[in-house]
Amino acid sequence: MDAAEAGVARLRVLGERVTPARRAVLRVLAETADHLCVEDVLARADLIVPGLHRTTVYRAVETLGELGLVTHVHPAHGPVVYHLAAGLTGETHLHVRCRRCGAIQDVPADLLDEVADRLARTTGFQLQPDHAALTGVCRTCGDRPNAGTGAAIRPA
Ligand SMILES: [Zn+2]
Ligand SMILES: [Zn+2]
Ligand SMILES: [Zn+2]
After folding, report:
1. Full domain range(s) for residue 130
2. SS (H, E, C) 64-80
3. What is the CATH number of the domain that holds 47?
4. How far away, in angstroms, is 97 Cα from ligand 2 center?
5. How close is the Cα of 146 to the center of ligand 1, in Å?
6. How many angstroms does the Cα of residue 145 sit away from the middle of ligand 2?
């Protein structure tokens, strides 16, 4: 059973309807490692089930989110992007986004554990590091000549 089928099974367990739109969204997200905004999800869902109404797919993405089958990440700029939830993929990660080229990269889920622990201890604040992408400059953009401040932020 792949992650999309696991999502369908989960819908059934939850007593939720397995609609063509929900099935298509699960399939789209299961078959990509990319970070898709809702427009991307709509375009790819349309290849799987042509003619689905945009609103229907939007709502499917939303509902799957509310049911905990799909998660989203907020980049500092640009639209929200979607993933299947860790419960379906068995994998979690955090995100960094390059402010020059806009590329989003996956980084290890435990990257900010110490920061989160320290914050919780000292202020009681509970960090959710997976909800927003961290902003910076990727290696490619940082290495590029004439890339402005790129040299300054290159690791020593
Ligand atoms: Zn959010
Ligand atoms: Zn970049
Ligand atoms: Zn990701």
Report:
1. 92-156
2. HHHCCCEEEEECCCCCC
3. 1.10.10.10
4. 8
5. 35
6. 13
Same domain, 48 and 124: no
Do 76 and 115 share a structural domain?
Answer: no
Please tell me the predicted confidence (pLDDT) of residue 3: 95
How far apart CA 34 and CA 76 sit, in angstroms, is 17
Mean pLDDT in order along the chain per 10 residues (156 residues): 94 97 97 94 95 94 97 93 94 94 94 96 96 95 69 49
Cα separation values, 85 from 93, 132, 155, Å = 11, 15, 33
pLDDT for residue 146: 59
Measured in Å, residue 17 CA sits from the centre of ligand 2 at 41
The pTM (predicted TM-score) of the whole model is: 0.84
